[in-house]
Write a structure and sequence with these properties.
alpha/beta; Rossmann fold; Arc Repressor Mutant, subunit A; 4-stranded antiparallel beta sheet; elongated
């Protein structure tokens, strides 16, 4: 019997989803806040974890990030916010899928089944990212250009890894700021520009004519594949 950990603070939603999951044959454990969810996930690992994003004590995105660091369990996020930026942030935190409320029970159960299938067949997590002479060792947080190691600051490494994961896509300054500095960071989006400039000085052969990190005027940045 597959096990599901459901972390949801709304009692009505929690009980309704639990009832339907049990009717499908799942062994369901419940938690009403992020801290209780983390304790449950650590004490008795589940086959699938379902998290509401807006949780008390420990929010769902933070909980997702912690769980992803500790295991490869499939994680499904539930949220009332459905913008593209919100979805990208959730997926970058390590979630496998993202459902926007309100949703049908049929869709919900189908996504749980899909998450279970991915969990059974998923490969080991990516440990390195490469593009041309650039190579990122994600586990050790080390960066190399050809055979030479580059000394990147933590924010620079996080920016570069995010851009390389989404190579070819334009990532806005607001998205980069939220993902690297956190959604509640009070700073100016120009903080991203400053760190991109520093990053270019370390990875580009000619920082004034960047080959890898390209500016998309008025929007943000794109890592050239």
């Amino acid at each position: 019997m597959p096990s599901v950990l459901l972390v949801e603070d709304d009692e009505n939603v929690r009980e309704t989803l639990a009832l339907n999951l049990r009717a499908e044959g799942y062994d369901v454990r419940l938690a009403a806040d992020g801290e209780a969810g983390l304790e449950s996930a650590r004490s008795e690992p589940a086959d699938v974890v379902i998290l509401d994003v807006m949780l008390p004590k420990l929010d769902g995105l933070t909980l997702c990030r912690i769980l992803r660091r500790e295991s490869g369990v499939p994680i499904l996020l539930l949220t009332a916010r459905g913008t593209e930026t919100d979805k990208i942030i959730g997926l970058e935190m390590g979630a496998d899928d993202y459902i926007v409320k309100p949703f049908s029970l049929g869709e919900f159960l189908a996504r749980v089944r899909a998450a279970l299938r991915r969990g059974l067949t998923s490969a080991a997590p990516v440990q390195e990212i490469e593009a041309g002479p650039l190579r990122l060792d994600l586990a050790a947080r080390r960066t190399f250009r050809a055979d030479r190691e580059l000394n990147l600051a933590p924010r620079e490494f996080d920016l570069l890894s995010l851009l390389m994961r989404h190579r070819g896509a334009v990532l806005s300054r607001d998205l980069l700021l939220a993902r690297v500095w956190g959604e509640d960071f009070p700073g100016d989006p120009r903080t991203v520009d400053v760190h991109i400039r520093w990053l270019r000085q370390k990875i580009e052969a000619d920082p004034s004519n960047p080959e890898w990190i390209v500016t998309v005027r008025g929007v943000g940045y794109r890592f050239e594949a």
